[in-house]
Design goal:
With about 220 residues, the protein is an alpha/beta fold. It has one domain (about 1-215): Rossmann fold. It is built from 8 helices and 11 strands. The strands form 2 sheets. Strands 3-2-1-4-5-6-10-8-11 form a 9-stranded mixed β-sheet, sandwiched between helices. A two-stranded parallel sheet has the order 7-9. Strand 2, helix 2 (about 40-45) and strand 3 (about 45-50) form a beta-alpha-beta unit. The chain is globular and about 40 Å long. This is SDR family oxidoreductase.
């Protein structure tokens, strides 16, 4: 299975491409914004596609030609304004979903926020609410398609070394989870069709990742 990783140069994206390299049956195409980002992925023998999420749908669809799955790991980051939140976390995600349709790619994995419910938008601090709202509407757009989607809602992300053990839930209490473990959850989800049509939260726990993902069926 060839996987287009959107937001590959981000922290989860880099872990993901590395783990895909180590896996059997998966290969990565890294979608990046700049040519100077390519050497990292070339060392991993991953293809690269240079496309900005602010480009049009057709440019993203071209990057997706010939792949079997798309993983959206992109994010505007905590230090950008509300404009980038809309353009990347909402519009970028929707354009990528539409590009998947255009390119005939059925499998789509979205990395979302821990809680994207209407209640979470209303409860969020004013500085964070636009991000939650953007993720909410991107998730809803994906659910309204006929794509084989999985939506992963990670807890508070850290750069700690992964434990390989998680807890998956529909409404678990927010706790931390290493980005490394989130990337491993993505790989497990790509390898397990029982995650199709599922949306689940992920935090650090005491269940091995493969076992936790299998239990989602």
């Amino acid at each position: 299975m060839k996987v287009l990783v959107v937001g590959a140069n981000g922290q989860i994206g880099k872990h993901l491409v590395s783990f895909i390299k180590e896996s059997e049956g998966l290969e990565a195409r890294a979608m990046i914004r700049k040519e100077e980002q390519a050497p990292f992925f070339e060392k991993l023998e991953a293809e690269t596609a240079i496309v900005d999420l602010e480009d049009d749908v057709e440019a993203i669809a071209k990057a997706a030609e010939g792949v079997d799955a798309i993983v959206f790991t992109a994010g505007s980051g905590p230090h950008t304004g509300k404009d980038k939140t809309i353009l990347i976390d909402l519009d970028g995600a929707v354009k990528t979903i539409e590009a998947a349709k255009m390119a005939g790619v059925k499998r789509f994995i979205m990395i979302s926020s821990f809680d994207t419910s209407r209640e979470a938008i209303q409860a969020a601090p004013s500085s964070f609410a636009p991000y939650v709202a953007a993720k909410h509407y991107a998730d809803e757009w994906l659910k309204d398609t006929d794509l084989d989607y999985t939506i992963i809602h990670p807890g508070a992300l850290t750069n700690d070394e992964g434990t390989g053990q998680i807890k998956t839930h529909q409404e678990s209490e927010i706790r931390e989870v290493p980005r490394e473990d989130v990337a491993k959850v993505i790989v497990a989800s790509l390898e397990n069709d029982t995650t199709i049509g599922k949306a689940f939260q992920v935090v650090t726990g005491d269940v091995p990742i493969s076992e936790a993902v299998n239990a989602l069926s």
